[in-house]
Amino acid sequence: MKNLAAAALLLLAACLPAQAQIFRAYLSLEGSDANPCTLPQPCRLLPAAVAAISDGGEIWMLDSANYNTGPVTITKSVSILAVPGVVGSIVALGGDALTVAAAGAIVSLQNLSFTPFPGSAGQIGVRMTAGTRLTIRNCQFRGFTNSAGVSVTAAAQVSVLDSIFSGNSVGMVLDGPFARVTGTHFEYGSTGIMMNASANGTTTILTLSRSTVSRFSFGVVAAPNVANAATR
Fold first, then answer.
1. Is residue 229 a contact partner of residue 201, using CB atoms and an 8 Å limit?
2. Residue-wise pLDDT tens digits, 42-96
3. Is there a contact between 160 and 150 (Cβ–Cβ < 8 Å)?
4. pTM of the prediction?
């Protein structure tokens, strides 16, 4: 009978679902990655919150602080936001600060500051290599003096609103997306916006409105890389 009871308990344990992921995760300066990333028990670093949320979830930064210690890779749809009045910092250290690399991913970034750690100016702030949609609102990209603040090499829809790109070699690199930039300021560097088209049959499209591009060697460059591609 004891053996039967033990077997039944093992079977029951095997049938129990894994701990469910949460829709909304929280990060705090006083948090710990040993916590479940809830509001009463927030986590400390962005990778822990990304792992805790379900696809399509939200991550809220509660304090002005830095929230990574190395490259962060996004492999699901997510919104990452700092609460109003707070600036969530993500630094490029040991690689690009934030990489979106998931087919079909919809990613939104708001009230965030991207900058390289000293000695890492050759990295990129946000790199998107796969995904459906990227929205950047009220974010800052500063100091990427040997690279770009944002690089999108995917056939995605990109929206950049009310943001600042300052002191980067290239503000944005666009290769393949349909991009809309409005209310955004690009200043200081080599090129404000670089539009490429590297794959045959592709078109990179940019709509730029209510924005300024100043103090660059080149403001906006549209230069397809192959004969059967276009930039508009």
1. yes
2. 999 999 999 999 999 999 999 999 999 999 999 999 999 999 999 999 999 999 9
3. yes
4. 0.90
